[in-house]
Amino acid sequence: MMDFLILFLFYLVFMLVSVVMVCICSKTNRLKGLVQGGAQICSCIIPECIQRAVRKLLHYLFHTRNHAFIILHLVLQGTVYTEYTWEIFGYCQELEFSLYYLLLPYLLLIICLIFFTLTCLTNPGTITKENELLFLQVYEFDEVMFPKNARCSTCDLRKPARSKHCSVCNWCVHRFDHHCVWVNTCIGAWNTRYFLIYLLTLTASAAVMAIISTMFLVRLVTMSDLYQETYIDDLGHSQAVDTAFLIQYLFLTFPRIVFLLGFVMVLSFLLGGYLCFALYLAATNQTTNEWYKGDWAWCQLCPVVVRPPSAEPQIYQNIHSHGLWSNLREIFLPAVPYYERKKK
To answer: What's the Enzyme Commission number for this chain (predicted)?
Structure first.
C-alpha cells in the first residue's frame, strides 16, 4: 500500500509540474489573466508569509538555473523503471513474452540518457564577442521579427537573426528555441538535435511500456477465461463479467501494474503531443520562440486586438524554410563557427 501511495504522489507531482510548465511556456495574455486572477483570489485566503515563500520557490525553480527538475526527472524515470522491472518484467517472463520486447524499454532508456546528457552538457550556441560577427552572417534578417542592427541591452552585443537573450541563463543564444528546465539549459542551434532524439526516445519508452503492460493484462484475462465468468451483484443476481468489472478486478489484483499503465499512457499522450509539435517546428525550420512571436504577429491583424490607429501591421513570413530535408539537415548538421572548430 505504501508503494502505491508513493507512486500516486509522484504522479500528482509530475502532473502539477507539467501544468505549471505549460502555463509558463505559453505566456499568452489569456493565461496571464487567469494566473493573475487566481493569485488575487489566493491572496485573500493564503497568509502573506506563505505567499512570499511560494514566490521565492517558484522564482528559484523557473527563473534561475538549478538541478531540481533534473533530479525530479531522474527520480520519476527511475521509479517507473523500477516498477516495470519488479512487476511487469517478471510476470511477462512467466507468460513467455519475447525477451526482445521486454528488453526494448531498457535499450530506449540507455539511448534516452545518452542524449539527455548531451542536451544538458552541449553548448546551445552561446553568443560572445568572439563569435558575434560569425553568427551575424548565418541567417538573413527579416526586418520584422529580427531587425538588423538590433542590440542586446544585457549582453551589449549585436543580435544575430533568430537569436534571443535567455533571462534564466543570462546569455544570448543562436537560433534560440526555448529554455527547458528539465535539462537546465537553453535549447539552441547546437543541442536541438540531441533534444529531439532525447524527446523521441523518452516518448517511445513510455509508449512501449504502455503497450507491454496492456498486452500482459490482456494475456492474463484471456488465459484465465475471466471474461466468460459470472459474478453475484449487490442484489444477489448473477451477472456476466463486463469491462467495468474486469478493470476493477485487475486494479484490485494488480494495483501497481494498472497504475503504472495509466501513468505511462498519460505520459505517452503528453510527450507524443509535444513531440509532434517539435517535429513540426523542425520540418518547417521554426523555433518555439519564432512560432510564438509569429502567431502573436498574426493575431495583431485580428480586428478584436486593440492597437493604435496609425500602426501598420507587419506580416511575419518564415524566410528560413527551404524544404524538409534542407531544414532537417540544418538542425542535425548545424553551422559551427570557425573558431570553435579550431579549438577542438
So the answer is: 2.3.1.225
